[in-house]
Automatic annotation (TrEMBL):
<protein>
    <submittedName>
        <fullName>Uncharacterized protein</fullName>
    </submittedName>
</protein>
<keyword id="KW-0175">Coiled coil</keyword>
<feature type="coiled-coil region">
    <location>
        <begin position="29"/>
        <end position="87"/>
    </location>
</feature>
Amino acid sequence: MHYWLSPVQEENVKLAEELGRSRDEVTSHQKLEEERSVLNNQLLEMKKRESALKKEIEERASLQKSISVTSALITEKDEELEKLRNEVSF
């Protein structure tokens, strides 16, 4: 038996194939959108962490400066105390 398709059937087959490709493209596009969404969420999380780390670094720098100032004041007071002790001993 010889199998042949009418022009309408051939067109139908072509359209069905096209539809299949279109569905594949839509599925692929949806997957890419999902991946993009996941990556955007990861980026937002990284930006939040970066912001928190910058704040922590600023706080540490401020504490370090405060420690330096306090240390300098202690040294100054120690020198004053030593001076006063020397004056009292004479």
